[in-house]
Amino acid sequence: MSDFNHNDHFQDLFESSQDMICFLKIDGKIDLVNPTWLNTLGYKSEEVIGKSIFEFIHPDYKNKYLQHRTDIIETNKIKSIEIGYLTKQNELVIVEGKTGCRYEMGVPQYTHCVFKNTTNKQRSEKTVRESEKRLKAFLRQGPDAVIIINEYQDILEWNPKAEAIFGFSQKEVTGKTLTETIIPLQHREAHLNGMQHFLKTSNGPILNKTVEITALHKSGKEFDINLSISNVKIDDGWLFIAFLSDISERKKTEEALIRKEAELLQSKILEEEKDQFISIASHELKTPITTIKAYTQLTLMMCGDNHVSLRKNLLKIDQFSNKLNLLLNELLDVSKINLGQLNLSKTEISFNIFLPDIINSIQQITKHRIILDENVSVQIQADPLRLEQVITNMVSNAAKYSPGKNHIIVRSFIHENEIVVSCTDFGIGIASVHSEQIFNRFYRVDNSTTKFSGFGIGLYVSKEIIKQHGGKMWVESSEGEGSIFYFSLPL
Ligand code: ADP
Fold first, then answer.
1. What is the reported pTM?
2. 286 C-alpha to center of ligand 1: Å?
3. Binding-site residues, ligand 1, Cβ < 6 A
4. How far does CA 118 lie from the centroid of its chain?
5. Residue of the nearest CA to atom 3 in ligand 1?
6. For residue 390, what is the enclosing H or E element?
7. Candidates 330, 395, 422, 459: which one to mutate for ligand 1, based on the most atoms within 8 Å of Cβ?
8. Which of 62, 17, 59, 53 is nearest to 32 (CA)?
9. Tens digits of per-residue pLDDT, 421-443?
10. 348 Cβ neighbours under 8 A, 6+ residues apart
11. Which of 11, 33, 148, 484 lies most in the core, judged by the most C-beta atoms within 10 Å?
């Protein structure tokens, strides 16, 4: 620079300065730049000297710089500015510093600039700003309530989820502590002690863990939450960041499930006790009934043909002890099924003889006319006594549940390699909601319990017997019109 009178000191300072220094002629042409200026922008001295400074200013900053330059030349004041340079590789370099104008005898001679490269500082500030933005977005939209408190318990952060869960707005909790807001009365002392303990020992048993605790809603209602707290050391104090979620619904479901399980267990125990009682009672009753029956038979024999009315009464006793015996046998069958001891003793059965025989013997004790409408002539392997038990149950139910009707139709036929036996009545029928359940033990349709006697085990035992023969049992029915009970056995 021809007209600049610089001494050695200035020269050293200029060369070694970490700042970017440049001198510009009054028309904006570069007169002198220091090595830091050149290195920062990636140029050699000969590439820049004599060129307009505007060639090196980023387009976004050109206007700003022009105005600033005009201003310092006109006012003759040193002023601060932040501008952007362009490097040789076309990258933006943000600089911040002071510029001024040198006057000689009232005439502006040149301008000078001393800048610091603040690109990295700005970048890291930008990064911090962006992470703050992300953190804020996370706090606003995250799935959990987030509460931040300091070691004095002051609430510093209270996101919208926390507002939703606890009912307190951010404004309402500002300047308050957790103990004044969401910690239930009974836990407040423990919370304060825990905090004191942590501040003394740096030991917090619930820190960095997820725990389930009770919290207080603004309305005063307590509810269950999931809580995890992390602690962060900031400068010389502590921050505690709590993530919380409302688990009261989940808790309710869990509790309902536990209650249901307990109920199920209880009813299972009751069922077992009931089974046990039935088994013991039916065994105990069996002996006296057999004895009554034996003495009745004996007295009948002793009476001979005399004592007509005595004989009639004895026959009644015999008939009712038979009925009682049948019921006890059914109860014993239930116990056998429970124990898996309902054993079959199969033989070959000719159906064309077997079915009419059973119908005839049931007809002796039934007022309804039993019509064997169709019968097949096949041989099957089955337990005749057990099969008779099933057919008797079907037909006697048909009679029992069709009071006032006069006939029942029984059929047997072949269908798809199975023998099917059906029993049709025209009685009270069964609503479809019960048609599966009536085969469960002790299940009786409501209207049967009041008007018809029974235990609700005949169909259960029958279905088990048919199942053991490899067959199926089902019903087709219309309430008020009658029912058709079926069973099928593989041939
Ligand atoms: P019980 O007749 O002793 O109650 P069952 O196990 O034989 O026991 O029958 C179970 C229930 O099925 C009966 O209580 C009754 O409600 C219903 N049921 C059975 N057979 C018939 C039928 N033919 N008509 C209408 N309801 C019937």
1. 0.53
2. 24
3. 393, 397-398, 401, 425, 427-430, 438, 444-445, 448, 454-460, 483
4. 53
5. 454
6. helix 384-400
7. 459
8. 53
9. 999 999 999 999 999 999 998 89
10. 379, 380, 381
11. 33
